[in-house]
Amino acid sequence: QVQVVESGGGLVQAGGSLRLSCAASGRTFSSYAMGWFRQAPGKEREFVAAISRNGINTYYAESVKGRFTISRDNAKNTVFLQMASLKPEDTAVYSCAAKIASASGWYFGKEYDYDYWGQGTQVTVPS
Prior knowledge:
Strand content: 35-45%
Order of helices and strands: EEEEEEEEEEE
Helix content: under 10%
Oligomer: single chain
Largest sheet: 7 strands, mixed
Shape: globular
Number of helices: 0
């Protein structure tokens, strides 16, 4: 079983920055592709960013491209989401997810392709 725990959320003024962390248990963390999703009030959960097992490949939603950066430290079983130039529309609960290794492809932007999820952390950017 893989336990996933997010942290680092909070209230940030527009234009500010915040770093989210996601810690995942397991001896095979380096075999997990990782992703960040978010869900704003009254809206469906949407893809934010993803990173491959070795950290070489990263993917971003168009809405956050150039502002958010996903990274990972496999030695610490941790994935990060550095958020900059935050906007009110970034307000949401941010969730981290892990995908176990598979011989098949990786639908990095699809929540159904992930196997384990954290509880989420709130990010609020007031207008």
